[in-house]
């Protein structure tokens, strides 16, 4: 083979490898998004599908340009007019933020304990964290209904040991949603945190102790700041999907539980208002893009630092 | 003993020979076990103020464990460790007046050089202006004045090593522990830094305890060297004593290059001990062989540089002289090492300084040569 022919081939190979994630994004994210985006500008009509298409294939490019000038933002304006949507967004963000904080609070000690465990135990501990994934997510959330309901395991146990007289109402409240989210997303916090803490050089802690630093202070001045990339990665992995969470609030939450995933579902399936629900989805995406971009920016900075 | 001069510094420093000296560090019958493994075995040693003490040995000999016990990261299983007369065996590391320089340097990656150096002082709640002055002083000491605002990852290996040193010295510890401090540096930089370390130790008047597996490093920096093996100190002595009067084959072999020839004590006559080597038709003499009797098995330890190589037999070939064939020559530039195979099959190494610039050396492969040495060149070892 000629040398430049070889170079040409590797260049093509390289492009192909780089192209794969882009193709993936294009087919499975950008194209569906474009469809949803298009629907979000249309109007409801009783038909199949239940909306009046804004752009049709038959109108051609010139027709599309015309349509652009008279594009209707009514669906988006509607989201601002009805308090339901704004409240759903805010409530989702709040529930996701509080849950993320709780997951961090519980996940950090777990990850820390795993990273400090004897080396031969660690694979088993990681396995234990991943193990719940072997059961369907839906079944695990259903199991929580059995635990949390009035005559459920938790109440029976609490009454049994005499801690409470009357069973608590946990199921179908926001507390149940928090429990569900914290439980479901714990591994997403523990794993990146563990990966980070495990790499931490023990000599750094020893050096801090050697210089007269109390172990507790050494944790806050050395271990915690150095684990921030892990904290951030874990928090985003929990926060972003938790904002759009539908299954947990639907199964464990009550009528008071307002989450955008639930609102979107009922808009789509109960009201059959595809245009408005599409607008809800587009706006949700825009809201989530901000933390994702921040996260990416942070990661890039970390990568640059590492060099 | 008359003071001996080593370079510009007049040295007559031997507190270990002075019974009135009070040791700074005392290990009293210290044993450390990890499960079944005995890392340090019933070890006792005194280290004196202003001493540069080296722990030398192969990996797994217990030298690092000893250092970590002194820093407080490990507790002795048995025995006591005294620092300045006080038992520190149970004192946590953050309450010990001891600082350590780590092999990996263990610089805090999220802090600047200045913050790293100031870290120990901050823990003691030293007033801010004092910290700043001390940090500046330390930066000057290690010649890193320009680098105070940098993060560790923006420094070269040698610079990081100096930051680590400055950080461990900032609190003026009574005792500085150095865990393989130069292992990560390249050879040239390592050699230069060795001298810097000794100068610094002299200048600051501190006690340094260094752990190393590099015998050259230990010889260069230390006042005394402890050669360790399997948790015990085989020999504790000055570098010259360790080299010239090793007390065992292990020490002789670990420090530098040595020829070991097994034999039997044939006769003892005051300052002359005659040895009959096994398997070699020759008669060896050494100046002394303490703790031996006639017929004891001994090993004659001969440093290669103390053996002369010649084509002609020496004047007195009856004693301390063997002949053989040049088997191999290692040309090292400054030295040539001749591997001479004796008739009995034993190979003896002789190092000759290349004082001339001859490319063709007079002695070459397969030449028949004579090896000879003086009576005080060799040491008879009984273990």
Tell me about this structure.
Chain A contains 13 helices and two strands, in the order H-E-E-H-H-H-H-H-H-H-H-H-H-H-H. By secondary structure, chain A is mainly alpha-helical. Chain A has a single domain (75-306), classed as Orthogonal Bundle (MetI-like fold). Chain A has a two-stranded antiparallel sheet with strand order 1-2. Chain A is globular and about 75 Å long. The two termini of chain A are 37 Å apart. The model of chain A has no long low-confidence stretch (mean pLDDT 87). Chain B is an alpha+beta fold and 383 residues long. Chain B has two domains: 4-97 and 173-249, Rossmann fold; 257-381, Nucleic acid-binding proteins (OB fold (Dihydrolipoamide Acetyltransferase, E2P)). Chain B has eight helices and 22 strands. Chain B has helices spanning 63-71, 113-123, 128-141, 157-169, 187-204, 215-221, 239-244, 249-254; strands spanning 4-6, 9-11, 25-34, 37-47, 52-56, 78-83, 86-87, 98-101, 175-179, 207-212, 224-229, 232-237, 259-269, 272-277, 284-286, 297-302, 308-310, 321-331, 335-342, 347-353, 368-372, 379-381. The two termini of chain B are 29 Å apart. The model of chain B is unreliable at 1-8 (pLDDT under 50). At the A-B interface, helix 9 and helix 10 of A face strand 8 and helix 2 of B.
Radius of gyration of chain A: 25 Å
Count of β-strands of chain A? 2
Helix share bin of chain A: over 70%
The DSSP helix count of chain A reads 13
CATH class of the largest domain in chain B: Alpha Beta
The total number of structural domains of chain B is 2
State the end-to-end distance of chain B.
29 Å
- Under CATH, the homologous superfamily of chain A reads MetI-like
SSE series of chain A: HEEHHHHHHHHHHHH
Instruction: Please state the average pLDDT score of chain B.
Output: 87
Oligomer: heterodimer
The largest sheet of chain B is: 6 strands, mixed
> Which protein chains make the most extensive interface, counting residues with beta carbons within 8 Å of the other chain's beta carbons?
A-B, 19 and 26 residues
CATH superfamily of the largest domain in chain B: P-loop containing nucleotide triphosphate hydrolases
